[in-house]
Amino acid sequence: MTVKVVWSKPWYRSRGVWGALLGASATIYGLYATALPCGVVQDVHNYAAGALALYGSYLAFMGRRTASQPIHIFWPYQKEVLD
Fold first, then answer.
1. Is the pLDDT reported for residue 75 higher than 80?
2. ∠63-77-4 over CA atoms, to 5°?
3. CA 83, 78, 8 angle in degrees (round to 5)?
4. Residue 4 CB burial class (10 angstroms; 0-12, 13-18, ≥19)
5. Do residues 56 and 26 lie in contact, with contact meaning Cβ atoms separated by under 8 Å?
6. I need a labelling partner for 46 at 20 to 30 A (CA). Which of 34, 35, 40, 65 fits?
7. What is the model's pLDDT at position 21?
8. Angle formed at CA 65 by CA 82 and CA 78, multiple of 5 degrees
9. Phi/psi of residue 71, nearest 5 degrees
10. pLDDT band at 80 (very low <50, low <70, confident <90, very high)
11. Long-range Cβ contact pairs of 74-79 (< 8 A, separation 24 or more)
12. CA–CA gap between residue 53 and residue 35 (Å, rounded)
């Protein structure tokens, strides 16, 4: 195995971060959907919140699985990684 030096990428370019944010927003949306009156409208919102949470978790998993660079919030930095 070889070692290479890579630059970190900004947090907003990370699929893992976006998947986690999407999952959190799905939870908040699901809590809002319980305040709706019972019936078809509430069912549609509950299914939408579930689908959003599933997609967010899938996106976070795939982002973490295919990650090749570390992320940074404020300043980029270099890091040695295995190739």
1. yes
2. 75
3. 85
4. exposed
5. yes
6. 65
7. 95
8. 40
9. -110, 160
10. confident
11. 76/7, 76/8, 76/9, 76/10, 77/7, 77/8, 78/5, 78/6, 78/7, 78/8, 79/5, 79/6, 79/8
12. 18
Give the model confidence (pLDDT) of 5-58 as tens digits.
889 999 999 999 999 999 999 999 888 877 888 888 888 888 999 999 999 999
Strands 78-82 and 3-7: antiparallel
Separation CA 76–CA 60 (nearest Å): 22
Residue in the structure block whose two tokens are 């509430």? 42
Q: What is the separation, in whole angstroms, between the first and last Cα of the chain? A: 6
| Alpha helical stretches, state H, 1-83 | 15-33, 40-65
What does the pLDDT read at residue 54? 95
> How far is residue 40 CA from its own chain's centroid?
29
pTM of the model: 0.81
